[in-house]
Amino acid sequence: AVPTAVMVATGKGAELGVLIKGGEALQRAGDLNTVVLDKTGTVTEGKPAVTDVVLATDGAFVHREHDLLRMVASIESRSEHPLADAIVRHARGLGLTVAEPDTFESQTGRGAIGVVRDGDATTGRDVAIAVGNAALMADYSVDTASAQADVDRLASDGKTPMFVAMDGVLAGVIAVADPIKESSRAAITQLHAMGLEVVMLTGDNQRTADAVARLAGIDRVVAGVLPAGKVAEITRLQALGRVVAMVGDGINDAPALAQADVGMAIGTGTDVAIEAGDIVLMRGDLRTAAQAIALSRRTMRTMK
Ligand code: ADP
Ligand code: MG
């Protein structure tokens, strides 16, 4: 039988906008001492928008910002990543025609590649596009040195810079900014006040991650991690004796949500994450994660 205290707490959780999937999750949440947060869509709004387009000065192929955006948007129209979505929305907002690419391949945690037609069927030519982070550029031996200063500056502002290569030559950088949720800073202050260690995990680069963490009041950051790396970090913390909550929203967070002692899914996130979570934060507000932990602690005390 489910103890009355658990039923009461589950009901209170629902009132707060927190769906607790069973008494066991509630119990474990009372023992947490570490909260790991995904960045994009968890600490931030997850609705990134293009802020800057920088053309490589020695780029061999692109002459105009709109040509670059049109071709990159064509590739990104096939990607489900929020960064891709930002680029496509930006291109459409400029009135550009976003055509189907000839080929497309997603490279998880790195970016996307594909071939698009530049110009019409007879007079145009096929261009191989790669859009993504430094690791993706390294995979295709693209020299990014000429853009490094721009990339560093953009990342220091908390923006996510993405390199664009055309036929293996750097063509430019597109930066996207994803604002921090208004509630995140207060939530992190609350978590700290409750004695919890807060860590942010992200596939994004170190500089951008550090800037976002600084704005949100988070003191530990692990950047540049692939989905498997998120699981590894949680396992590492658990091996140190920590009781770990993972809060995430994306498909790529699902394995980490499952590995954590308590997986907390953002209710506005992907179905896969919601499925993997023990607790669902319906409004995506991190303050409700702190409230859920406080509720669990109180409930466990009354049951002892
Ligand atoms: P996060 O953990 O922040 O949600 P991901 O692991 O999904 O990030 O992605 C890591 C990095 O890979 C991104 O910051 C970006 O630089 C690059 N990337 C991933 N997908 C794309 C894409 N479709 N277009 C461009 N860049 C991408
Ligand atoms: Mg995310």
From TrEMBL:
A cellular component annotation (GO) from this entry: plasma membrane
A single BP term in Gene Ontology: copper ion homeostasis
GO MF annotation, one: P-type monovalent copper transporter activity
Keyword DNA damage part of the UniProt annotation: no
UniProt entry keywords in alphabetical sequence: ATP-binding, Cell membrane, Ion transport, Membrane, Metal-binding, Nucleotide-binding, Translocase, Transmembrane, Transmembrane helix, Transport
Subcellular location: Cell membrane
Entry annotated with the keyword Lipoprotein: no
Signal peptide span: none
Primary localisation category: membrane
Family affiliation: Belongs to the cation transport ATPase (P-type) (TC 3.A.3) family. Type IB subfamily.
Stated name of the protein: P-type Cu(+) transporter
Species of the source: Gemmatimonas groenlandica
